[in-house]
Design goal:
Mean pLDDT of chain B: 87
Low-confidence stretches of chain A: none
Order of helices and strands of chain B: HHEEHHHHHHHHHHHHHHHHHH
Strand order of the largest sheet of chain A: 1-2
Chains: A mainly alpha, B mainly alpha, C mainly alpha
Shape of chain B: globular
Radius of gyration of chain B: 21 Å
Oligomer: heterotrimer
Helix content of chain B: over 70%
Number of helices of chain B: 20
Helix content of chain A: over 70%
Structural class of chain B: mainly alpha
Strand content of chain A: under 5%
Structural class of chain A: mainly alpha
Number of helices of chain A: 19
């Protein structure tokens, strides 16, 4: 089969799924089968593409030129391939988990939930494979819009408020900052194509480069660069699988992926480090990284704590991209993968705890480990992965980030990363310690009381991913390293 | 050959049809006549556009009297484009009108409604096609008088007030226009657009105050019809009060034609140098456009009546179009012109959807439309997609317009204008988001709970417009390409 | 300054028109009674008609007849234009008065203030 056609197939599958799901409105089993089949189909297609890309192919496909200079075109490069692989893998797991969660909690409007989920995944695939900024922006906005109903899913005042903040901040930043950045890029460079080595060199002065970078960094609101992170904790009102989608599968990953891609393919890391226009972003993301960790430390609500942890971890990726050194960019790419696996496990666990015992606060978790051993064990693994302890995947990305910081001549950043790791430990391990070492406070007598099998299965699987990533990190690193050869 | 007389047919056909409607005074017969006439319009307009693209400017001497003495119909890419917009909207609106008019207008007046609609259409087409300044005034008044009556047919008695208010302001505007034309005539001795343009070149305009006075009078006069901020006061009441079909028709067409006429005066008659280089018209226009964008969008946020909300949004959108004019470069002008078309599609679709709410749920108040997204999902989906176009989400026509406008702003070195454009887009997210939230995240109650989808005759035109919003958003070659040519034609003038 | 005076006097027809125009506009703005508004509107329009007609007039000119002895004749075109404009003006007035009748039926008054006071305007 033609490799280029695979790109289109990968894009069409989720949207077809979204179109088919409403037809099975009255039959939940059929509906969820469609979801799973769609997810598997996407996964298979992406894996076929991955094989080709690993073998050195760079498939591309141009759909249509909207107006001169604005083209809907796709081109696969290693970073996008990695993002698509993560998103499509985690979609299957999330779908399985969703079935357990949505049924277990008797959520309303499940059909529209699955529809919007499929559209969001289609958009994420589009972002991953986009060959130029316009195409990326197109799918970026589709992702924002399609996740809005998911965040507002519960339909109560709090959910509507959260969704409003979510939409306004993401669309707002993208329209007011990201789009002007794209226009500016087009005006100075005359093209929007992602080109290894960047397209801006020689077209724009160092000060302007700094401003342009700021427009991109803040405009891509999904990357939750402080102080534009506010939407992320607010969006925690959404059902847990949606949080997983936001935090691990698609949304924030799309954000940091876009930042990395822009820095690498629009600015070019050599150009950026020569001009020094990236310095402020390195400093800002370092501060953001520590600040978010400190906030997470003070959150008792488990999901809120995880949300701030995400803000902090996203800052790692942005930092990696901003350092503009080859090792750090690889580290940023790796961290997208590692954090996805770790954070999705943590969220699944938080959701499973809620489904099984309706507990939402860290302080309520005393002794829960004996009632839900699988869940809490997975939580432990996920936490260690995010912290970056061997033998879990997270260690590799942190290693590359630190090495990259050193390589780029930012020695203090290495210290920041170390302190942040300590903070990670301080806010991620207490739930585990409480769960296993504290006596239960709610009159628990013994016996297992886990979440539905689909949920536990999904979270165990992602915990296994965390482990596997430690051993297979080199494959990812190898893939990403090909980016650097141009 | 009938093909030679297409320019005359374009205007005369609806005019004659309107008279026939008035004479038979049978609502079904009148409807069929209006429907057939409306279907004929795009055929003629597209034929004209193709002819223009093939052979260049068409000059048609009305009644065989040669210009500049006789009235000339002159069609270039710019007005052929506007003709196509007008006639396409007309052809879509008539199938839609049947059910909506039957429900909103008393039976004995329905034939008159179609008569007035045809007169209005004829007037708008006439303004667009004519190459004669005074003839344009006559058509302006034909369309305006018909519009006043259309608005007054609204079910609410406040529609009468709106119509009267518009009549007073519209007449003042038209009279200003006549004053301007009179001054031009005294200075040049001709009324033919091309001829005026040629003779103005020979005059030393700097010392010729009547010509400058004419420019001012004409700008204000047409500005009233355009609903240029701050001359927009008539528009929200008029759109809110008029019957749904009339609102959709007017929103999609009337202001567009006025903008076209303004462009014609700025670029081809007075000329680029006089208007933009020697006098700060562009700067004034820029400020008014931006003020309109913000005022319109901000006020729209606080409206409960969706029709009124969309009317205020129109004030803002007209600001975008004028902004495209005022940035005085090719890219921005392309953006302004393509937005003429795109906004017609978007607002047409939005008002069509709202007409569906009015018919099936009996209300257009946001507070009473709770849960309408669940009882009328197909209509509401159309509303949402058209709304996304209005915001300017990529993949929709709104994005194409904004792309050219923002790009034009950057090219003009006024990047901050680009930001202002996008901030107002954000305000559109707010006012449209309110509708979406109420429609989808509240339980249906009242009229909305019992509502069902409107008939296919209303859904189909709505969705055709929505589909066009997306198709031309993904492949803008046709629209933006034509707009680009039109912009070139305007900037080069009638040479 | 002094030299400008003959110029100003020569164009007295403009001054008359301008005076009438502003009078008309003032009536439209200042009067709440809708019929009076229409009167003002008509005065305003008529002022413009005068502007046109007077511009076509030539001192000592004759009616535009093409025959011997008629060498300086008035420009007929503005007059023809104004015939059209008068028709338009009459039509506007008719529609306006029609609306006022309907407003009177619907609201029981044709005073703008009285209608606004009832909070009819949104």
């Amino acid at each position: 089969m033609n490799v280029d056609a695979l790109i289109i197939l990968a894009l069409i599958i989720p949207f077809c799924g979204a179109a088919l799901i409403p037809l099975a409105h009255g039959a939940p089993n059929v509906r969820e089968t469609i979801t799973l089949v769609t997810a598997t189909g996407l996964f298979a297609t992406v894996m076929l593409l991955l094989r080709e890309v690993m073998a050195g192919a760079r498939p591309s496909y141009s759909v249509i030129e909207v107006t001169p200079g604005l083209e809907i075109a796709f081109a696969i490069e290693p970073l996008g391939m990695l993002f698509a692989a993560i998103a499509s893998t985690l979609w299957i797991v999330t779908s399985v988990y969703s079935i357990g969660y949505m049924r277990g909690n008797n959520e309303p409007r499940q059909t529209s939930y699955y529809v919007w989920f499929a559209i969001a995944l289609g958009a994420a695939t589009g972002i991953a494979f986009s060959g130029n900024l316009f195409t990326l922006f197109l799918f970026y906005e589709i992702l924002s819009v399609s996740t809005y109903p998911l965040v507002a899913h519960k339909g109560n005042e709090e959910a509507k408020r959260g969704a409003r903040v979510y939409l306004m901040m993401l669309i707002g930043a993208s329209l007011v900052l990201f789009l002007p950045a794209i226009v500016w890029t087009f005006v100075v460079a005359g093209t929007l194509d992602f080109t290894p080595g960047g397209i801006l060199e020689g077209n724009i002065g160092p000060i302007a480069t700094g401003f342009l970078l700021a427009l991109f960094a803040f405009g891509i609101g999904k990357a939750a660069v402080m102080p534009l992170h506010y939407w992320l904790p607010t969006a925690m009102v959404a059902p847990t699988p949606v949080s997983a989608l936001l935090h691990a599968v698609a949304v924030v990953k799309a954000g940091v992926f876009t930042v990395t891609k822009v820095i690498f393919y629009i600015f070019g890391i050599d150009f950026l480090s020569e001009t020094g226009a990236n310095e402020w972003l390195v400093i800002l993301s370092s501060i953001g990284l520590l600040a978010a960790s400190l906030v997470a430390l003070n959150k008792d609500n488990l999901k809120a704590r995880l949300a701030y942890s995400t803000v902090s971890q996203l800052a790692y990726v942005v930092l990696g991209a901003a350092l503009a050194s080859s090792l750090a960019v690889v580290g940023a790419g790796l961290h997208i993968a590692m954090h996805a696996a770790g954070k999705i496990t943590l969220f699944f666990c938080a959701g499973a705890i809620y489904t099984a015992s309706k507990k939402t606060e860290v302080s309520q978790l005393d002794g829960i480990g004996w009632r839900m051993p699988f869940t809490m064990a997975a939580f432990f693994i996920g936490a260690l992965c995010v912290i970056g302890v061997p033998p879990l995947g997270g260690v590799w990305s942190k290693w590359h980030l630190m090495a990259g910081a050193y390589e780029a001549g930012y020695a203090p950043v290495v210290a920041v990363l170390m302190i942040s790791t300590l903070l990670n430990i301080a806010y991620l391990l207490p739930p585990v310690i409480r769960a296993f070492l504290m006596p239960p406070t709610d009159g628990y007598k013994g016996g297992l009381k886990e979440a539905p099998l689909a949920s536990v299965g999904a979270l165990s699987l992602t915990a296994v991913f965390c482990l596997l990533l430690f051993f297979y990190a080199d494959a990812i690193r190898g893939l990403l390293a090909e980016m650097l050869v141009y | 050959m009938i093909a030679d007389h297409l320019p005359a047919l374009q205007v005369v056909l609806p005019l004659v049809a309107a008279t026939v409607c008035a004479m038979v005074d049978r609502r079904h017969v009148a409807y069929v006549i209006a429907l057939l006439t409306s279907f004929a319009m795009p055929l003629i307009a597209v034929a004209l556009l193709i002819q223009v693209l093939d052979q260049g400017v068409i000059s048609y001497a009305m009644g065989g009297w040669e210009p500049p003495i006789g009235i000339e119909y002159r069609i270039d890419v710019a007005n052929a484009f506007v003709l196509v917009i007008l006639s396409l909207v007309a052809a879509l609106i008539m199938p839609y009108a049947a059910r909506s008019v039957a429900a909103e207008i008393p039976e004995n007046k329905q034939a008159w409604f179609y008569c007035m609609y045809l007169l209005c259409l004829s007037g708008l087409l006439g303004i667009t096609i004519t190459g004669d300044a005074f003839n344009a005034f006559v058509f302006l008044e034909i369309s305006s008088l018909a519009t006043y009556v259309l608005i007054a047919m609204g079910a609410d008695r406040r529609a009468l007030l709106a119509a009267f208010q518009y009549l007073v302001m519209g007449t003042i505007g038209a009279t200003f226009y006549v004053v301007g034309v009179g001054l031009l005539y005294t200075m040049t001795g001709t009324l033919n657009f091309a001829d005026i343009a040629a003779r103005l070149q020979e005059l030393d305009i700097e010392t010729s105050r009547p010509v400058l006075a004419a420019l001012a009078f004409i700008t204000v006069g047409i500005g009233l019809k355009v609903a240029m901020f701050p001359l927009h006061a008539w528009l929200p009441n008029a759109y809110a009060g008029a019957p749904s079909v009339a609102t959709a028709f007017l929103a999609a067409t009337a202001t567009k034609v006025a903008v076209y006429l303004l462009l014609r005066y700025f670029y081809t008659i007075f000329g680029f140098d006089v208007v933009f280089v020697q006098h700060p018209v562009a700067q004034v226009l820029l400020i008014l456009a931006v003020a309109g964008m913000f005022a319109g969008s901000l006020i729209a946020i606080f409206q409960d009546n969706i029709k009124r909300m969309l009317a205020w949004s129109s004030v803002a959108q007209i600001g975008y179009i004028l902004l495209g004019v005022s940035l005085i470069n090719h890219t921005a002008l392309t953006g302004g012109i393509v937005h003429l078309f795109n906004h017609a599609l978007i607002k047409g679709a939005l008002f069509f959807a709202v007409g569906g709410f009015a018919l099936m749920a009996g209300t257009v108040r946001i507070s009473q439309l709770a849960g309408i997204g669940r009882t009328m999902p197909v209509t509401m989906a159309a509303f949402v997609l058209a709304g996304l176009s209005l915001i300017g989400v990529p993949g929709t026509v709104g994005f194409v317009s904004k792309w050219y406008l923002v790009l034009g702003a950057f090219e003009a070195g006024m990047w901050w204008v680009g930001f202002l454009i996008l901030i107002t887009s954000l305000l559109a997210v707010v006012y449209l988001g309110r509708v979406v939230e109420v429609a989808f995240f509240r339980d249906p109650e009242g009229g909305a709970a019992k509502a069902i989808e409107p008939p296919l005759s209303m859904l189909a035109p709505t969705w055709i417009l929505v589909a066009a919003c997306i198709v031309f958003g993904i492949d803008a070659e046709l629209t933006a390409g034509t707009a680009m040519q039109a912009a070139s034609v305007l900037i080069e003038g009638l040479r | 300054m002094i030299e400008a005076i003959p110029d100003l006097v020569h164009h007295y027809n403009h001054w008359v028109s301008i005076f009438l125009m502003v009078c008309g506009l003032y009536i439209v703005v200042a009067r709440g009674n809708m019929v009076k508004k229409l009167v003002g509107l008509t005065v305003f329009q008529t002022a413009v008609f005068l502007l046109y007609i007077s511009a076509g007039k030539i001192l000592g000119g004759t009616p535009p007849i093409i025959a011997e002895g008629y060498e300086h004749y008035a420009n007929p075109l503005p007059h023809v234009l104004i015939l059209t404009a008068i028709v338009v003006g009459v039509a506007t007035l008719a529609v306006g008065l029609g609306l006022v009748v309907r407003i009177n039926e619907a609201f029981g008054t044709i005073e703008e203030e009285e209608i606004f006071e009832r909070g009819e305007q949104e």
